[in-house]
Amino acid sequence: MSLGERIGVYPGTFDPITLGHADIIRRGAKLVDRLIIGVTTNPSKNPLFTPEERMAMVEREVAALGIENVTVVGFNALLMKFAQKQGASVIVRGLRAVADFEYEYQMAGMNQQLNPSIETVFLMADVSLQPIASKLVKEIAMFGGEIAKFVSPAVREDVMARVSRNGLLGDY
Q1: Residues 6+ away with beta carbon under 8 Å from 59
Q2: What are the sequence ranges of the domains in the chain?
Q3: Is the pLDDT reported for residue 152 higher than 90?
Q4: 91 phi/psi in degrees, rounded to 5
Q5: Residue 6: which H helix or E strand, with range?
């Protein structure tokens, strides 16, 4: 870390990484000198992919975006401790709808109490990408729906292969 370098952290489970995530990564990377994508574990979200698989997927997608100042790091800790360890001064969060805002606003308030020197910046998802949620992408795939509008072709292949391999494909 060089003196005066502004580091941001964009945390998430990225299970799977969607076009909405990619939009926030692309735009968030413009706001900081270095953007760290923090891929976290969250068993309550019932992940389809392991943390290692999600990290590899995010790294591949970031490479495809061609953004030089983005790195991917896995973590299993309190976000503010992770951000502080990374030297971050900014947390980047994406917002899709009012329901997201209420949750994210509460989290930002709690995070500010934990470390007031780290700011949370909210980026509104592009209008065309607002409905996309990883949970819904997985649900659509599990019932045989087409997810190509929501994820890159490579991620679509990953999701469909996992759903098929795990016998999760429902009746349609």
Answers
A1: 72
A2: 7-165
A3: yes
A4: -110, 125
A5: none
H or E stretch covering 152: none
Q: Which CATH architecture has domain 7-165?
A: 3-Layer(aba) Sandwich (3.40)
Question: With 0-12 CB in 10 A as exposed, 13-18 as middle and 19+ as buried, what is 53?
Answer: middle
- 2, 20, 28: which is closest to 96 by C-alpha? 20
| 14-53: pLDDT as tens digits | 999 999 999 999 999 999 999 999 999 877 777 999 999 9
Report DSSP letters for 72-117, one per residue. Answer: EEEE-S-HHHHHHHHT-SEEEEEE-SHHHHHHHHHHHHHHHHH-TT
Active site residues: 21, 45, 96, 134
Q: How many CA atoms lie within 13 A of 72 on its CB side?
A: 22
